[in-house]
Amino acid sequence: MIRCQCSRDLKVFTCNANRPLAEKIAKHLKIKLGDIKVEHFADGEVDVQVLESVRGADCYIIQPTCTPVNENLMELLIAIDAMRRASAGRITAVVPYYGYARADRKSNPRVPITAKLVSSLITQAGADRVMAMDLHAGQIQGFFDIPVDHLRARSVFLEYFLKNKPENLVVVSPDVGGVERARKFAARMDAGLVIIDKRRPKANEAVVYNVIGDVKDKTVIIVDDIVDTAGTLTVVASKIKEAGAKKIYAVCTHGVLSRDGVDKVENSPIEKLLITDTLPEDKRKHSDKIQVLTISHILADAILRNHDGRSISEMFK
Question: Fewer CB within 10 A of the terminal residue: the chain, N end or C end?
């Protein structure tokens, strides 16, 4: 590990959303997690107390805003406020999974842009910086008036496939919005690119109209950022199978897998779904088809680089 070059103390804290990930990050950094109490009053209000001095320290709060989304978001905001009032030198909100990210524009009349609202809440609470992993849309970085480090999980998926690279490979973007993500993945794998022409008649429901490109007798990797109910993913996988694909894999950074998402994956033609530990593992959602890869080393490296004032973009070159 590179020795810290900053005069400020480095302190890493976690709320309740994903403690196992925070512990892995602390282990990579060879430090102990900071001492903080995050509990709830009888009526459900969040009670936070920082149990050690953070005056002048460089503080990082690990907290994905996953299910229960609103509770985890409030824990993050209140923890940031507690740090600010305790005179922390710098506060960085490390949000591996940024909830409400899909509400990033006005897709219909009279709807909110909740991704912007959440960014304002984090900023107003007192965060000086945000780190996030694979935001649903790149423009979310512009919603913040503070610096945002947009980290990528691509390297852990590439490492998995490059160890035993499939032959006759193509990478599939499940919609037009994810083309840039899939193109970069395909370039690193030296593979072709296929795009799915998809429409969404309502939330969590997808209809595939066209497969743009050739998947016949090929091994396919579907690349996306979030798998929620797995409706889109499994519909796309079935359409690709009908078009003659030989084997189908999928990689999604954030494995939400709500409702019957795991059952859909189990009953789909997908051979393996790779996700990361940006969200806490739910033992009830176990499946032999789903494998979790850790991104803790990426977050730990980004934290250390930021603490030392070194480039974070160099990590992804």
Answer: C
